[in-house]
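[Primary structure, fold]
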Amino acid sequence: MAAKAAKRAVAVLRPIANGMGVSCLRGDCPQNLRFFARSFTIPAARPRKLIRLSPFARRHASTTSEPDKLGRTGLYDLHVARGAKFVPFGGYSMPVQYSDLSIIDSHNWTREKASLFDVGHMVQHEFSGPGAQAFLERITPSSLSALPEHNSTLSTLLHRETGGIVDDTVITRLADDKFYVVTNAGCREKDKAYLAQEMETWNGDNSPPVEWKVMEHQGLIALQGPVAAGILQQVLDDASSKALDTLYFGQSTYATIKGTDAKVLVSRGGYTGEDGFEISIPPYATDAIAEYMLDSAKDELRLAGLGARDTLRLEAGMCLYGHDLDDSTTPVEAALSWIIGKDRRANGGFHGDSVILQQLKKKSEGGGVSRRRVGFIIEGAPAREGAEIVDEAGEKIGTITSGCPSPALKKNIAMGYIKDGMHKSGTEVDVVVRGKKRKAVVTKMPFIPSKYFKAPSTK
């Protein structure tokens, strides 16, 4: 497929002015710095040798100095060229869908072939140094001491006293003392303030040093779908392509795209329940690599937006922060107890441990929670966020936090919190939709089987 791709012209920007060195990387580039463009023809199967430009000089930089304007990811111009419809999301102007596919068609395309999602609005961090692991284990319930190099875990940042979820996150160990952490765009400012305060406290305790870096302007794309691995293999160099054969769900590796000097971090996983990858890309290479991937698999790969991403993630039983998770919710209430490591359950030592460890105990020991996150299948009209869940007597026993029609099941699905004791699969309840009661059944999640590429069982 890649060999058949048509040739195309590519504009390469080069600075006229000298001195695009350290000062530009700090954001101190002169405002009148000008560029000229030259065009030449190359095969679409091989992206150009990428020129390292300061992200601050790019028109589509991912942040803005004017607080009243939405940010743009490094792929904004590509979205425009491909017919995207934009909505505000997490402080960014993000594509919700594209002109070539409806949201349902895009959803189905992802389940049948593969889609490319721009997730560059997410916040990427690096924590490194002798105290990095201990610092992260203080603010999350994860057992990072047991996390092998280039393996990941879902986790949550926690409030000190309550154990409430500041944000959900994925933590990857890159080296013995280096971690890659991704947090949500909508929590950007809250998370930065939280982490800054935690770092200040950590340093004040004379703890082992930690360096925290926010990877501003770093690109992030998600390649998702049953043919995702084949698409990625054909655009990687030979050594990187072979590594995918044994890269399993929750693992990562550094890789190189054919014809470039761009070192990307490839993590196997995603938000759709399908096999797939999240790829962290240097700012100067994000648009070129995304276009190259799209051009190399025109019959199998399409861009997808937030609309399809939301229906896909709900079918997969994935939470969305600010809807299914918030500051008042603990991991136990959110059915995320599995992220709490065995040694953490035994020894604590993380924020909110007194609350969370008590919730993990049996009711006879004073433990348990009053509500739990569960899934629902609902008859009639779909239930949306805020819809009340009621019992036979009409008493409120819970609230829907996310809901939509499922393209795969052809049924209305939802996620929400329900009174403890009513949370067991098969329990029948009512959900009030537009003033009318609709029959609903508590259902296990994910709603459809996950298709992650997992390591062979050793049992």
Summary: Confidence is low (pLDDT under 50) at residues 1-45, 51-67. The first helix runs from residue 22 to 25.
